[in-house]
Amino acid sequence: MRFVLSNPRLFLSKTVMVFALSFALIPLLQWKSDLPALAYTGSMVGLHVFILGIYLYRVRFRDLDPDRRSLVARILGLAITTYLLSTTSSFSAESSVATLALQMLAVSLVHMGILALLMVRVIPAVRAQPSEVNATVSAR
After folding, report:
1. Which helix (H) or strand (E) holds 123?
2. How far apart are CA 127 and CA 40, in angstroms?
3. For residues 53-76, average pLDDT
4. Proportion of the chain above pLDDT 70, given as a percent
5. b/e per residue, 41-66, with b = 16+ CB within 10 A?
6. Which domain holds residue 83?
7. Domain count across the chain
8. Model-level pTM greater than 0.85?
9. 19: exposed, middle or buried (C-beta count within 10 Å: 0-12, 13-18, 19+)?
10. Which of 3, 88, 115, 136 is most enclosed, with most CB atoms within 10 A?
11. Helix (H) or strand (E) holding 3
12. What CA–CA distance (Å, rounded) separates 108 from 76?
C-alpha cells in the first residue's frame, strides 16, 4: 500500500492559507473579552466555515480509498486529529502573544494533518504474478 499526495501544489497552498488564517486569529483571541459575544462567535463560525471550504476544495473522495480498510483508517485518523484539535485549541485571552503563537502553531500543524488525511490517496500494492516472480528469479 502506498500513499500519494494527489496534488502537492494544492496541498501546499491550502496549508499556507490555513496557517495564515490561523495566525491571523491571534488578535481576535486577544480581543475576545472586549468584543460582544455575538460578534466573536459569528466571526469564529464564519472563519471555520471558510476553512472547511478550504479543506474540501477539489477533494475527490471517491478517488482516495480503494477499499473499506483504508477508508476506516482515514476516518479513524480524522477522528483522532479532530480530538487533538479540540484539546489544543483552548486559548485564554490573558495569554501572551508568544503563548498564543505557540498554541496556534500546534493547531496549525494538526490542521495540516487533517489536510493531508483529506488529500492523500491510498494506492494498493501491486502483487506480482507467480510467472513474473519465476522469471525474475531465473534471470538472476
Report:
1. strand 120-123
2. 54
3. 91
4. 90
5. eeeeeeeeeebeeebeeeeeeeebbe
6. 2-139
7. 1
8. no
9. middle
10. 115
11. strand 2-5
12. 20
Distance CA 3, CA 114 (A): 15
Among 76, 30, 26, 25, CA closest to 51: 25
2: β partners: 123
What's the average model confidence in pLDDT over 69-83?
A: 93
Nearest to 24 by CA among 110, 87, 100, 115: 100
- What angle do the packed helices 8-30 and 97-119 form, to 10 degrees? 150
Helix (H, G, I), strand (E, B) or coil at 24: helix
pLDDT the model gives residue 140: 52
Give the whole-angstrom CA distance, residue 91 versus residue 100. 7
120 with 4: CB under 8 angstroms?
Answer: yes
The answer to whether 131 touches 9, Cβ cutoff 8 Å, is no
